[in-house]
Design a protein that fits this description.
By secondary structure, this protein is of the alpha/beta class. The chain contains nine helices and eight strands. The strands form two sheets. The chain has a five-stranded parallel sheet. About 30% of the residues are buried. The C terminus is likely disordered. The structure holds adenosine-5'-diphosphate and zinc ion.
């Protein structure tokens, strides 16, 4: 199957590294990355009205209402296939709305332990100018508190503070985890434990893609 005929969803708890794990598939196979979290943060940086509406929910670790998310997703989609959805859908209602717009081929479920989730989220830092992510321990910037790409200041996301993290995890359990059942026939389960890429050759095959390039293996 060609990438241009295929849609993938990446599902997993906050901190699973959905953005990082999708990067290879995007660079190597040419998928278009649609991360609702990234799009929302971009809208907030540009002080867009929808973004500012969404920010109130995001800062508290709550989900942004389905209506806003669906409106936003639809304006970003110019064709039917070739997408990796990252952080979307996050509710059953979003999933059934997506089913009405485009076909979904595989749902990659990234799972990891609670301890790793907490470590990843509390140490994450983001560039305020370009949005690039770092981690104080696992992926520090060589310029300390500034971004290697654009020298922007690195900050901690409002929703990466411990109290809000708890909220996000309980929202995930209640509202997003039911999607595992919803998509059970399309699910590919991948452990996202280490600092390295879990999307290895074997998993790429499961997705139905073929590549001659070798990819690094997971899990130190
Ligand atoms: P993470 O996966 O680490 O929680 P994201 O960047 O995917 O981070 O999302 C950050 C926040 O953006 C979420 O906590 C939520 O408020 C909002 N958000 C992102 N995607 C969606 C979505 N599909 N539906 C509702 N809210 C969303
Ligand atoms: Zn930057």
């Amino acid at each position: 199957m060609n990438v241009s005929d295929m849609n993938l969803i990446f599902l997993g708890p906050p901190g699973a590294g959905k953005g990082t794990q999708t990067k290879k598939l995007i660079e190597e196979f040419g998928f278009i990355h649609l991360s609702t979290g990234d799009i929302l943060r971009q809208l907030i940086r540009s002080r867009d009205t929808l973004g500012l509406q969404a920010q109130i929910y995001m800062d508290q670790g709550k989900l942004v209402p389905d209506g806003l998310i669906l409106e936003m997703i639809q304006t970003k989609m110019e064709k039917k296939c070739g997408y990796i959805f990252d952080g979307f859908p996050r509710t059953i209602d979003q999933a059934s709305a997506l089913d009405k717009i485009v076909p979904v081929d595989h749902v990659v479920y990234l799972f990891l332990s609670h301890d790793v989730i907490l470590k990843r989220l509390t140490g994450r830092r983001v560039c305020e100018k370009c949005g690039k992510e770092y981690h104080i321990e696992f992926m520090p910037s060589s310029l300390k508190d500034s971004c290697e790409l654009c020298k922007g200041r690195l900050y901690q996301r409002e929703d990466d503070r411990p109290f809000v993290i708890e909220n996000r995890l309980s929202v995930y359990e209640k509202q997003t985890k039911p999607l595992l059942e919803y998509y059970h026939e399309k699910l590919i389960r991948i452990e996202a434990c280490g600092n390295v890429l879990s999307i290895d050759q074997e998993n790429i095959k499961k997705i139905g893609l073929s590549t001659h390039k070798a990819m690094s293996q997971c899990c130190s």
